Amino acid sequence: MRGRRRGGREIGALPFPFPAPCAPFSAMDWMQYTILTTTEGSDLVSQILLDAGSAGTMIEDKNDVAANQRPEGQWDIIDEEIARRIGDDVKVTGYFEVNGSLRDRIAQVEAELRRVRALDLGFDLGKLETSAGTFAEEDWAESWKKAFKPFRLGEHIVVKPGWTACETRPGDHVIEIDPGMAFGTGTHETTGMCVALVEKYVKPGDRVIDIGTGTGILAIAAAHMGAKPVLATDLDPVAVRVAAENARINGFADVIETRCGDLLDVVWETGDVVIANIIADVICMLAAPVRARIADGGLFVCSGIAAERLDEVLKALDDARYEVLEVREQGEWRAVASRKLA
What we know:
Shape: globular
Strand content: 25-35%
Number of domains: 2
Structural class: alpha/beta
Helix content: 25-40%
Radius of gyration: 23 Å
Number of helices: 11
CATH topology of the largest domain: Rossmann fold
CATH architecture of the largest domain: 3-Layer(aba) Sandwich
CATH superfamily of the largest domain: Vaccinia Virus protein VP39
């Protein structure tokens, strides 16, 4: 899930003592400070944290999951399990450098919290309970690097980070992805199934359109299969920027073009293969109108389909006159390859 991120600050009493003001601090030490609030109160709490000097905030709200499940939301793979894990409280987390001003910054947050509690804001701020912890920036930076190891998708696609080597077999294609701000590194089952379908159905010279490209893994996989040109779109400008950079890193800057916006607004070309690794609702919504962007006899490859939504997607494809060629299953997810009928 993509959390909402912005500048931030937080409120409440710390569960551990502050260091003495004269104690030496490492410039790499940070406090993560989390406040429980509501959807209505999250922006206000976030602004309080920012005003107190937080380096940024992250808002975790299960209502964002529901919003993103709607066609007008960001197109992304959003597992409903995330909403259950988040719980009913909205969590707003701020990040403060541990230094001599930390006590004053937290005191400012607490004072502002007391002030807004006394106001009649017309909405519920929720529990406003807080928790805090420290982490070393260097430890954090290295921990996610250690967790991201080379892995195989499909038969011959190997995804690796730039900071490590990987073993390959004859016929393998290596995709180098450095996550950073990326939205998914390709480890999700839906991406693996989609890559397998790309390997099977994309042929040299095919024109490919990748909807909701994220980090660009599927667009790069299509380019490795010989597709040219490849058009990768996403509603999120950061995703588009990341995908363009990954295309460059992997040597496909002249093959893959990235565009920001809704498919139906920013794509005028037709593709021999259109890929949509998104969610069931969006696939159902797109099935009919995306036909205009698929060449006669072309393919629509879609994934990100929860198992219980497969029948809805198959019906939408049938209603929009597609022939289903293959359905793949992995865990709780499904992927479909279909052909546009005349």
